[in-house]
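User: We ran a pulldown and think these components assemble together. Before we commit to crystallization trials, I'd like a predicted model of the whole complex to look at. Sequences follow.
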Amino acid sequence: MSSSPTLASRLKGRSELGVALLLGAAGVLVLVDAIALVTPYSKSDPVGPKTLPYLVAGLLIVCAIMLAVNVLRGGQGEAEGGEDVDLTHPADWKTVLPLAGAFVANILLIDWAGWVISGTVLFWGSAWALGSRHYIRDGIIAVALSVLTFYGFYLGLGIPLPAGLLAGVL
Amino acid sequence: MDVFSSLMDGFATALTPMNFLYAVIGVLLGTAVGVLPGLGPAMTVALLLPVTYVLEPTSAFIMFAGIYYGGMYGGSTTSILLNTPGESSSVVTAIEGNKMAKAGRAAQALATAAIGSFVAGTIGTALLAVFAPIVVKFAVSLGSPSYFAIMVLALLAVTAVLGSSRLRGFASLGLGLAIGLVGIDSVTGQRRLTFGQPLLADGLDIVVVAVAIFAVGEALWVAAHLRRNPLQVIPVGRPWMGKEDWKRSWKPWLRGTAFGFPFGALPAGGAEIPTFLSYVTEKRLSKHPEEFGHGAIEGVAGPEAANNAAAAGTMTPLLALGLPTNATAAVMLAAFTSYGIQPGPQLFASQGPLVWALIASLFIGNFLLLIINLPLAPLWAKLLQLPRPYLYAGILFFATLGAYSVNLQAFDLVLLLVLGALGFMMRRFGLPVLPLILGVILGPRIEGQLRKTLQLSAGDPAGLWSEPIAVGVYVLIALILLWPFLFKLIRRNRPAAMPAGILAKSGSSEPTDAGGSGSHGSHRADATSGGDGDGDG
Amino acid sequence: MTIVVGYVPTPEGEAALTQAISEARKSNTTLLVINSSKGDALVDNRYAQEPEIQSIEDRLATQGIDHVIKQPVRGHDAAAEVLDAAEEHNADLIVIGLRRRTPVGKLIMGSTSQRILLEADCPVLAVKAGMAG
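Assistant: Here's a predicted model for the assembly, 840 residues in total across the polymer chains.
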């Protein structure tokens, strides 16, 4: 719909096109998956397992196209505000990425090292990512929270969180 | 059994020491999260969903009800003392409430908000107790075709009416429906969207989805945009009101309730429109219109009452039809589902004691809010000084814990992170979250009703409109979908005569422009100019 | 030639400011007012808002004092901000307000004034609420 030189300029600052791409990909995924389903002929189920996926895929793809058009025409999603949100700054990846890192560390550690260790890493790492520099105080809070929730879930809710490396100790 | 005796039984259940304790916990927790920045009732209920695996359903819902009402109350406290409305429904409260507080009348503003919430919540809950059984009586006569239509209406209404961009609403809905598709198809036993991953065969756990979208997504989003300039909370003693304040407050409370309840009960009604309507009405009826914009107590009393009455109204379709109309109700519906309880008209028959205990606990929660929170207001204000690293690290910690404890598998945490990233992206690009959650929850049920309907009609699509209610609902759906076009048409024909203003204005979902953010914006500007001062020095 | 005052919107802070103003008038030097926040919470009651800053601004202007008001929010604690400013501007004097703290409170929270007293490279004048003259 637009010639190549202007396309490049139009793409600039339009990261929202990524959303359209994601929607489109999701739509295609649903569509491909739905095609692979078999519909057994059945009087008791005239709708079959494919109908809703087809509708959803259609909805997603139409939304993807319309969103792409909307964005290229200068439309913009309104970022969500909040009490503790200051939209005047751009996204602060220096906070978000370490935060995600702490989260991933927890995923990798939880089954092997156990909740008490992985939870401590998660809390301490998150607090650090968010700018806390009271290393010792953060550590004490992190350990206390992890141990308390471990026993709380085990004794109170009957849910055995993994003990991992500390299996003999806890 | 008639309503009254059922309700009395409900009180008997809700007032057992354990359940009463859960009500107190719920109310305290709800107020705390309402006050704390970045936490809302929907997120809190989502974080607490894991406890549903061990708690009695009755106790869990009593606690959730407390959180729901408490969250509303806590939200108004921050709007008044800080002028930072956390939820769109407390934007209007902030307009006059913060002005009152700045003029040294914080105590009165908090008092009229609290007492008004109590009055509205109590009346609203009474209306719920009266109307829900009537709706149920009507609803049990409905067949699958009508149900299908009503659920589609609920989805489309939330998607099309709320939020600033319908397109983005539908995109969010599509994503939600797609997430809802994951898992084994209940009729044919085929796996949909599982990509050969056996862990996906049971579908995505709604707990994981809700926690990811509401808690992880929100925490990441806030972390990326932390407010730098700290605010100062307006000091407040114990809330109280003088005789004159009472005289000026009681009518707005009642009118606010009248606005709030019906809107709360409507799909996509929400609390924004009634709070705004109440504000405008009070401004018009007030004997002191000149005080509006400078801290008129009516402007706090009315909208706060409307807000809480809407919360009570929301419970009506949730309990009677199984239809959630806002985020918190959606998460509560997820909690019902995780107990294997089918919400809907059968709920009153099959789970009568539970439902009535829940309604009774709403009365109790309201009362507790009043007597606990009036004296505690200064304490709640202190809560705002909690350092952010602990607050958001805590949210992530408990989100992880909650999602993991569902199945004790690390795979759920991967999903949590992926969906949390999706939640982050949605907030970044203005995709509303509610349609997604509703899509996940209602999608499978809509499919079920659709199949049932066509099964009954032996595959004839005419079966879809075989009931008069269904036809009526489809007309309504058509109206909602075509509304923007009709609206444009009307506007084009009568460009000058557009004072239909109020609804249109707030319907276009920019109630923030109505003045709340006007003052908010200026506040922020102040803060920045202070910051500029640093640079010069 | 500067006087640095650590300001907080409390009686102690007011006392410090009043004292600092009279010192600045006496020696006819620049007054540097520091009101900082770590900025790690939504609310910090020790961080002055615009109207308060404005009124200090007016007060200093009417008294004809050469002044700079700074409100750094950089995640550092108040002591570090005051010491930083003092070093940067080669301060002759730091004025701070003292508040009574129980030994236990001091143990847990640490003491901003204590740190400034111990680490400052210039004379420090400590004032208690209601003592300024």
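The mean pLDDT of chain B is 82. That may be worth checking against your pulldown data before setting up trials.

User: Thanks, that helps.
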